[in-house]
Amino acid sequence: MLRYLTAGESHGQGLIGIIDGYPGGVKISADDIDKELARRQVGYGRGGRMLIEKDGVEILSGVRWGKTLGSPICLQIRNKDWSNWEKAMSISSEYEGSVSPVTRPRPGHADLSGLIKYGHDDIRNILERASARETAIRVAIGAVCKLLLREFNIEIISHVTEIGGVGINKMVLKLGEIQKKAEASLLRCADKGAEKRMIKKIDSAKRNGDSLGGVFEIIVTNLPIGLGSHTQWDRKLNARLSFAIMSIQAIKGVEIGLGFEAARRLGSDVHDEIFYDKRNKKFYRKTNNAGGIEGGMTNGENIIIRAAMKPIPTLMKPLKSVDIVTKRPFLASVERSDVCAVPAAAVVGEAVVAFEIANAMIEKFGGDSLIEMKRNYNSYMKYVRGI
After folding, report:
1. What is the mean pLDDT of the chain?
2. Phi, psi (rounded to 5 degrees) for 172
């Protein structure tokens, strides 16, 4: 079983991630991870934090001479803004009270619920960990998982399909074209016309001190049949993927394949008919309304997931709130933030999906080393081709 933990605060010394259960013998370097971190930091509508931080990872354990050992992998991303927060975020009681507490909770954030839950009197104790800054280390973890998946030719791509109600036109593009256009886009949008309209929408929101959400799509290719299981609720791959996507800050909805549209159609217009290619000895579908998953298991088609991200709750034109000390109404406190972070969220989505697919691969094919895992995989694929 693959698992991970993260630690760290937005303005603390840095972020830490520990991955356990990762097989030995996989080639890995900090450069591979840094490329993914850089993808998370770009995008039209990002805030001032991206001008301060240029994330780079340090691999502290679990790798020797460029290959994983099979022992826990520890990753660290240092916060470059730490020098300005050493007293405010110090672990020492010596600096307690050196900065004023944050007492005005922001609507839509974890501020008030977290403060009450953990018994604090300073909202900063909540907002520092609830911040989407935490996703940087999850992207690093996802990058490590992507390296394992590429050993099996499994790729994960993402693109933005909607921002602030402005959606892309229906496109008939090959996956390679979608990936290429998305990577070249300021908004990870493969539709140039839609991108221009989205940028205008973001500019308008920024002028008004507001924020925008949107929708992104993740596609996973070249998956074997049978990842996940139908036998228990917590082994269904669609459930795990939905859980992972919903764990990303500001995500409010997930759909796989047709998603909610499936509820509006007849069954005959939803389910993917099954065919058999005698030449290549494989089952296949001409449609993929299921989004690559049936009964909690991969069916050999691409996994297609869409996620809805709400507008970021930190606004330059803050909403009404109540001071937790005086109980008097105030405008919510303002923290440095983005106007729109949907493109970045898409990269984070890739990362958490990569972890879940890697976990399903390890669960299915086992092995403490990449060599053993590939041997099991190849044997299984030979069996599948012989059916």
Report:
1. 94
2. -115, 85
